[in-house]
Design a protein that fits this description.
The structure holds two protein chains of two kinds. Chain A has 14 helices and six strands. By secondary structure, chain A is mainly α. In chain A, the strands form three sheets. Chain A has a two-stranded antiparallel sheet with strand order 1-2. In chain A, strands 3-6 form a two-stranded antiparallel ribbon. Chain A has a two-stranded antiparallel sheet with strand order 4-5. In chain B, a hairpin with a 2-residue loop joins strand 1 and strand 2. Chain B has a two-stranded antiparallel ribbon. By secondary structure, chain B is mainly α. Chain B has one domain: ABC transporter involved in vitamin B12 uptake, BtuC, CATH 1.10.3470. The chains are: A mainly alpha, B mainly alpha. At the A-B interface, helix 6, helix 11 and helix 13 of A face helix 4, helix 9 and helix 11 of B.
Chain lengths: 363, 296
């Protein structure tokens, strides 16, 4: 194994641990809540980075996949099975430990599905939808692709907003915690704050390692050849349609998993998660991160999501993301965190310094 | 369904359709000269409507609308000067992202300049309850204004592109920008003019529909998406196609209400858009070969 490649990953893990220790040390552990949420959003962004940056396919509808994950788990785990308790299927699930009996706030007993089932169901549904919609959508390019994915996002948003099952404008709340193993659970309870931070961080690190290896593999090279020129890649015998579809489904699954976990963490989900503006935000962050740059996307995703969630942008939240899009595309189409920019900055500073010292000599 | 009811649906479909057609024409004008789909097109309608509403407080209505159209077209020119001209070696992806960014930014600025309240211009003739009886169906006189002004816009644009030098230069840019430049056409200025024209048309449309649909800081987006659907349906860049496509989508939407819940109405146009994109991206009137030549 090439350890050198993983140096940044160890750095990332170190930073994650330092963050936790510092926030605990200064008694500001509540910062971890937003960091956890940002980490889940980063998972969406990482998937989208591979799709946009490496395969060169824009998606303006990733919030829809996130919402699919969130809503699938929300519907399945809040659905009370008490009435069908005696049916064979439910009993079978019960004996395999896949249902959970609880008392609700009024003391009535409720029986609901284990989040493990809903996690797999959500991944399955999202992957299937992404696969089916990806076949025709990925034949499109440029504006058409952007508009088609945007359209898909809007349809999902409208369905969520207009369907009784999904709670219409209210969304779904009272979602039970996701008990992973033992006392490890994804839940918004302040007592679980630190462990939830590490669960989210674990998912992000796992996602990064997976995508790093994907990019360095045969698939990654094929993707970059598609970004360079799809015709040329095709002519060289790369099955471009298959690779594009694969990455599209993979990034959709990333978004879906993020949706499932964040929904259990928040204990609820609302239609705003499926909003087009969310998709645009994801695209904005991928663009700021430098498109084909996992680390840039991660750093920018954490920073911007964290600032946005802590409410630093106030009522200018959407404005900030809109201007980021324009600013980056006009001045840094390669992304902010490119070494070239730092080099230019250093060169500019050196020139200023030289000029200053020259002026001093003359003076 | 009785005849009167049918007629009522048809009239409402045509009204909405003609609004979509105007938005689509706005898309086409910019697309033809630059190859850009201006995702901020819907915001021109909102800006036009909002400006006219604010100005109508102290100006007579026609003057307020005129001023709103002029102001919005200047904003269109500004967008080109500040943003579009600066794009270095723009790829399609970059242009999409910039115009989406513009759309969000304009919307948010409007939110802070005005507020989140729903406003509207007064009815051009009569008021909310004035109605005209046409063969048993009742329509507001404003609907006639919408239909009238959209027809005037379509006819005038047709004349402009056919008979004036500027219009013909713009068409030259549309068919081949390099060749147009070689013929001595200042293509950059043509792009500015196309932004101004498209903003002005958008603003005018925004004013005319304001009494019926009302204006709010975020009303542009859904109009832009429907307008884009119509533009694709009619074949990008094809204005006659836009009118036909607009009426088709308008009618489909109007009749969909009698079958599907109202909440899904907005999803109809988009579902149609997806189907067209999958089946025939060149549109009903667009030529396949012409579409293949365009850069995508």
């Amino acid at each position: 194994m090439n350890m050198r490649k993983y140096t940044p990953v160890f750095g990332l893990i170190a930073v994650i641990i330092i963050f936790q220790l510092v926030t605990t040390a200064i008694g500001r552990e509540f910062y971890l809540t937003q960091l956890t949420m940002s980490a889940y959003y980063c998972l969406v962004i990482l998937g989208l980075t591979v799709l946009m940056g490496y395969a060169g396919q824009i998606s303006m509808g990733h919030a829809a996949f996130f919402a699919m994950g969130g809503y699938t788990t929300a519907v399945l785990t809040t659905c009370n099975l008490m009435n069908v308790k005696e049916s064979l299927f439910v009993k079978l699930l019960g004996t395999s430990g896949l249902t959970i009996m609880e008392k609700n706030a009024y003391g009535a007993e409720i029986l609901h599905l284990s989040p493990w089932i809903s996690l797999f169901a959500a991944v399955f549904v999202t992957a299937a939808v992404a696969f089916l919609i990806g076949i025709p959508i990925l034949k499109l390019k440029g504006h058409y692709l952007a508009m088609a994915t945007l359209g898909f996002g809007i349809i999902v948003y409208r369905i969520v907003l207009g369907t009784r099952l999904f709670g219409e404008a209210d969304g779904i709340s009272d979602i039970p915690p996701f008990k992973i193993a033992g006392s490890l659970a994804v839940s918004g309870d302040p007592a679980f704050r630190v462990q939830n931070y590490y669960i989210a961080a674990f998912l992000v690190v796992a996602g990064v390692i997976l995508l790093m290896n994907l990019i360095d593999s045969r698939v990654g090279r094929a993707l970059r050849s598609i970004h360079g020129s799809e015709e040329a890649a095709n002519a060289m015998g790369v099955n471009t349609a298959r690779y594009k579809l694969f990455v599209f489904v993979l990034s959709a699954v990333f978004a879906c998993i993020a949706g499932v976990f964040l929904t259990h963490f928040n204990g609820g989900i609302g239609p705003s998660e499926a909003d087009v503006m969310k998709s645009v935000t994801y695209v904005a962050i991928v663009a700021v991160g430098g498109m084909a740059n996992l680390w840039g996307a991660l750093v920018m995703g954490m920073t911007l999501n964290y600032l946005s969630l802590r409410g630093y942008f106030g009522s200018f939240d959407e404005f900030v993301f809109g201007s980021i899009l324009i600013f980056i595309m006009l001045f840094f189409p390669e992304g902010l965190l490119k070494m070239g920019n730092f080099r230019n900055l250093a060169r500019g500073l050196a020139r200023l310094k030289n000029k200053y010292s020259a002026d001093k000599k003359e003076g | 369904m009785s005849f009167e009811q049918l007629l009522q649906y048809v009239l409402s479909g045509i009204t909405n359709g003609s609004i979509y057609a105007i938005v689509a024409i706005g898309f086409n004008i910019i697309y033809n000269t630059t190859g850009i789909i201006n995702f901020a097109q819907g915001e021109f309608l909102m800006l036009g409507g909002m400006t006219a509403i604010s100005l109508s407080a102290f100006l007579p209505l026609p003057l307020a609308i005129l001023a709103a159209v002029i102001i919005t077209s200047f904003i269109g020119a500004l967008i080109d000067f500040i943003f579009i001209r600066r794009l270095r070696s723009p790829s399609v992806l970059n242009m999409i992202i910039v115009t989406i960014g513009l759309s969000i930014t304009i919307r948010e600025i409007a939110l802070h300049v005005w507020d989140e309240k729903v406003r509207s211009l007064p009815y051009f003739t009569g008021n909310e309850i004035t109605s005209i009886n046409i063969l048993g169906a009742y329509i507001s006189p404003q609907v006639l204004w919408v239909l009238g002004i959209s027809s005037v816009i379509v006819v005038c644009l047709g004349g402009f592109f056919k008979f004036t030098l500027t219009g013909r230069s713009m068409r030259a840019c549309a068919s081949n920008i390099t060749a147009a430049r070689l013929c001595g056409i200042n293509t950059k200025n043509m792009v500015t003019i196309s932004f101004m024209l498209s903003a002005a048309i958008g603003a005018l449309a925004g004013c005319v529909i304001s009494p019926i649909t009302q204006t709010q800081y975020d009303c542009g987006t859904s109009l832009a998406i429907k307008g884009f659907t119509v533009a694709i349906l009619g074949g990008l860049g094809n204005s006659t196609g836009a009118v036909i496509g607009g009426i088709i989508i308008g009618l489909l939407e109007a009749f969909s209400i009698s079958v599907l819940p109202l909440a899904y109405k907005d999803a109809i146009a988009i579902a149609i858009l997806l189907v067209i994109l999958f089946v025939r991206p060149s549109g009903i009137l667009g030529k396949k070969e012409a579409a293949a030549l365009k850069e995508f």
